[in-house]
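Progress note, project year one: complex with flavin-adenine dinucleotide.
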Amino acid sequence: MYDYLIVGAGLFGAVFAHEATKKGKKCLLIDKRSHIGGNVYTEDVEGIHVHKYGAHIFHTSNKKVWNYVNQFTEFNNYVNQPVAVYKDELYNLPFNMNTFSKMWGIKTPQEAKDMIASQIADLDIEEPKNLEEQALKLAGRDVYEKLIKGYTEKQWGRPCSELPSFIIKRLPLRFRYDNNYFNDRYQGIPIDGYTAMVEKMLEGIEVRTNTDYFRFIRENPNIANKTVYTGMIDEFFDFCYGHLQYRSVRFESEVLDCENYQGNAVVNYTDCEVPYTRIIEHKHFAFQEGSKTVISREYSEEWKPGAEPYYPINDDKNTVLLQKYMELAAKQENVIFGGRLGLYRYYDMDKVIEAALDCVEKQI
Ligand code: FAD
Ligand code: UDP
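Model obtained:
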């Protein structure tokens, strides 16, 4: 009945559906959630766009992807400039001259570089073997102890010495006075919210929400020639080799009778005594006004069945397990695996869109 059954109405599924439909293919898009958008879904609370599954800031250096998303929405000029609270101290992120100057009372890049070098002189780190060594090498002991260690161990639930170094390489380290969290050329938030953007992508496409793939396919085994699957890869194979591990996040959201709670969209809490990793104040992403505000505290947790799988844990153990599932996936001639969960990859939105565009190109 359909050329493609697309499982998951997140960005991968939505982009694939949009492009395949444009190329004349008949698509059915299903999602087990009650809404489209996947993790970028935003809902209106008190007129504020609330990022229901965690703060999402669009950033990319890929002009093709930037032009692509701008067909569906206009972006505002939001630039992410989070701050970090460590006990009673407050620092700018990412690690830049504002951070170093506040931490050490210095002014010049050379002074900052000298300070970092002096803090790691006795460590002799040539090739960092894990996140701890990578962080120490990049930013020195003070920044590691105050701004990285507590946050990272809360976020990942593992010691920094057991985590891969690439996680920290996501963050810029700059010897300029520049608080922009990203190095990318383009950045912003859809003015009408991400849900409206995805709605636009899916105009004219058949979508069924509240529809779980595993039940649906049992009842409709011959519904499509091919399947695009963006759910968890291990679940597709009924966890036959065991569970891949994820980190999940519990969001504790509140509407406050207060115009402006923290003066910034993102405030990270980097010491391990505070149980949450950060507080998001949603109205600041879209420069929204009004007498109320919505905040979300983020508590990072280990994923267990029933929770939302958010961050793949790309350590050695999970990488080996993933390889085994990827071998099974390669044998599925009519199933294409894609997206953050389908490939178990720590993908940003722009990378997911790029991958979906490449995938359609290859398929059709
Ligand atoms: P998803 O959005 O997860 O979509 C997959 C969909 O598949 C879901 O809707 C799910 O319900 C559905 N599904 C799963 N299993 C089944 C099933 N059995 N049957 C039916 N449907 C199913 N990226 C950025 O670029 N900037 C950011 O600031 C940023 N912040 C993030 C913050 C958090 C907390 C997280 C977790 C991610 C963040 N990301 C960010 C990454 C971004 O969310 C992803 O790149 C993107 O949303 C992935 O899209 P996707 O389609 O691969 O997956
Ligand atoms: N990080 C940190 N301190 C912070 C913010 C981030 O140590 O205040 C580290 C942490 O290890 C985190 C990584 O940098 O996992 C990447 O941060 P990013 O904000 O990119 O994570 P996201 O939640 O967007 O994936």
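The two ends are 18 Å apart (CA to CA).
Residues 1 and 222 are 8 Å apart (CA to CA).
No further modelling is planned for this target in the current period.
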